[in-house]
Hints:
Layout: H1 4-11, H2 26-37, E1 48-53, H3 56-64, H4 74-79, E2 82-88, H5 94-106, H6 115-128, H7 137-158, E3 161-165, H8 170-176, H9 178-181, E4 185-193, H10 212-215
Antiparallel strand pairs: 1-2, 2-4, 3-4
The protein binds flavin mononucleotide.
The site of flavin mononucleotide has 10 residues, from strand 3.
Amino acid sequence: MTHPIIKDLNTRYTTKKYDATKRISAQDIEIIKQSIHLSASSINSQPWKFIVLESDEAKQRFHNTFANMFQFNQPHAKEASHTILFAYNPRFTKEQYKKVVDAEVTSGHLPAERYNDMLDGAFGFAELNTDETGFNGNWTKAQTYIALGNTLHTLARLGIASTPMEGVDAQLIGEEFKQELDGYVCDFALAMGYHKEGEDYNHGLPKARLPFEDVVTTL
Ligand SMILES: Cc1cc2nc3c(=O)[nH]c(=O)nc-3n(C[C@H](O)[C@H](O)[C@H](O)COP(=O)(O)O)c2cc1C
């Protein structure tokens, strides 16, 4: 298929080596940030924070978090142009959800008289996914992965290379970025930039996907 969307998604791939001399333009970074901000989430909960690491100091701090594990991803911390830390709120509360419903009304998306319908009704989805201690991190983390998928597609469109990384140390990231995370949890990150010619073994390889018929059923 030659549709541009399919071409983009066939061309994007997980980069294994970055060219440290190449930087994403300020204009493209702005598009990436706006795109991530527009990601969809269940009940529009947006239980996330995205921390964009751009400065050398921020990259060094991220680099430090590979002290104990996943060192195969560590070079990206400094060689990639930017990295985004994807973080989720492990205890998303109804009180916090009020901010979303406020935005629903002030944006003109929700009539003011329906404020309580949304607050009480929609939040039921969060409650269904909340345990007796108030933990709903499995659900909020799932929302954050939607933003990852959205960002991967945006990067594909922009022709920017990337590496989604679950191979990060959530505990050390939690300590190093404690202040910025403010109680949120980062279990995965996304390095972005431009691959290093000749040194990125993953570049140019064909896609390896399960047979289409095994995973897509049309009824
Ligand atoms: C959530 C997630 C976590 C991943 N974690 C890592 C990682 O830590 N390091 C790495 O090199 N690749 C990682 N990958 C890349 C996958 O291995 C890769 O997406 C998959 O093999 C498909 O290949 P493609 O991205 O080149 O199409 C991750 C991908 C996703 C979506």
